[in-house]
Hints:
Keywords: FAD, Flavoprotein. It is built from twelve helices and ten strands. It is α+β, with helices and mostly antiparallel strands. About 50% of the residues are buried. The structure holds flavin-adenine dinucleotide.
Amino acid sequence: MNFTMPPEIEAVRDMVARFMANEVVPVMEDFEKRGEFPRELVARAGAAGLYGAVFPESVGGSDMGYMAAAVIIEEMSRQEVRFTSCNNQQGGTCPTCIYMAGTPEQVEKYVPNLLAGKTIGMMSLSESGSGSDAAGAMKTFARRDGDVYRIKGEKMWASIANETDVGILIAKTDRDAGAKGATAFIVEPKKYPGFTAKPVDLLGMSKAFRTNIVFLDDFVVPVENRLGAEGDGFKIVMRALQPGRLNVAAKCLGLAQACFEEAVRYANERTVRQQPIGRFQMIQDSIAEMATAIEASRGLVYRAAFSMDNDMPSNRIASIAKYHASQTAKMCADKAQQIFGGYGLAREYRVSWMRVYADMLYNGEGSANIQKIIIAEDALGYKPADRHHGKTNLRDVRQTDIAKQ
Ligand SMILES: Cc1cc2nc3c(=O)[nH]c(=O)nc-3n(C[C@H](O)[C@H](O)[C@H](O)COP(=O)(O)OP(=O)(O)OC[C@H]3O[C@@H](n4cnc5c(N)ncnc54)[C@H](O)[C@@H]3O)c2cc1C
C-alpha cells in the first residue's frame, strides 16, 4: 500500500488550482449574471488539458489516467462546481462513448476537438419518462430512411444541449427489444435540421450552463454517424458510465471540500457572545463530521481511480465511491449552510447554492438508490457488480471490444 500521491499528479493539481483561481473564479459570476455560456473559457480549459487526462496522446489526451482525472475534477469542483457542468460532455461519457465504440474515422473526427474544448459535447440519454430505467422506458425513435436516420421524440435533462456542436444521443431503433433496441448516434444539431433545445428553469442552478428539454422532429443523423451497431446503444453508454461515476464522485468530493473550507473560515470569523462560533462544541461537532466523511470519500474515490488505472474490477468500488461522496457532499453542504446561519441563504455566499449541486449530484449518473441496489445485490450474491468487467484503461481498449460484451 502506498498512500502517497505521485508528484506528477500533485503538479497537475497545482496547475488546475492556478487555472481555476486565475481564469475561472474571477469571471464565473459575470457569466452567471449574463446567462452566457463561457465557450472561450471551456476552450482554454481544454487547451490546458483539463478534459483529456484519461485519453491517449494520439487523440489529444495526456494519457495520465483516472487518478489524474479524479484530482483534476476534485480541484475544479472545489473552486467552482458550476464550471464542471460540462466536464462529462468534454472529457467524460460523451468522448468516452465515441472513443470506445467509434470507427477510427469517427474517433479522429470528433474526440480531439471535444477534449480540446473546441467543440461542445452532449450526452443525451434521459427522457421525461425514463431516467433510472433509461433504456426500458425510452420512447424516442430513430427511423432509417436511406442514408440517414430521422429521429422523433423528446429527450429530457440534456445538459449543454442548447450549445452543443457534437453529442451522443440514444434512441430506439427497435421498440420491442427493450435495452437491446437502443442505438447510439453521434449528433450534430447545428448542422442538421429537426433539433430544438429549450433550457429548463432549475432553482439555484447555473444560468451559464443550462440543462435542456430537447424536441426532435425528424432530426437528421447520417448513417455514418451511428455509433456501433443498431442495438448496441445501451451497452456503449453503460460502459462509459463506469468512469462517469468516478467523475461524479470526484466532483462531489471537491464540492464537499469547498463546503468544509467555507464552514471552517466562517466559524473562525463569525463571533457570537464575544467568541468565534468555532469555539462552540456543536459547531465543532459539524466540523468533525465533515472532516471525517471527506477523508473517507477521498480514500474511496482515489481507490476507484487506482482500480480503473490498473484495469482491476471497478464497478462495485465506483458505485461505493459515488454513493459515499454524494452523501458526503449533501451532508457538508447542509452543515455549511447551517453554520452560516441566516447568511447561508444570501446569494453572495456560495454555500447558499452549493446545496442544490449536492442534491443534483446525489441523483445524477445513477441515483443514490441505484448505487445502493448495485452494492447490495453484489453483497447478497444476486448480481455481482463486476460481472461485466471490461478494460477501463483507455490505452488498451480495442474499439471492437464493446461488440463482444
Ligand atoms: C441538472 C441535471 C442535469 C442532468 N444532465 C443529464 C444529461 O446531460 N444527460 C442525461 O441523459 N441525463 C441527465 N440528467 C438526468 C439524470 O441522470 C436523471 O435525473 C437521473 O438518472 C434520475 O432519473 P429521474 O430523474 O428520471 O428519476 P427516476 O428514475 O424517476 O427516479 C425517481 C426516484 O426513484 C428512485 N428509484 C428509481 N428506481 C429505483 C429502484 N429500482 N429502487 C429504488 N428506488 C428507485 C430514484 O433513486 C429516485 O429517488 C440530468 C439531471 C439533472 C437534474
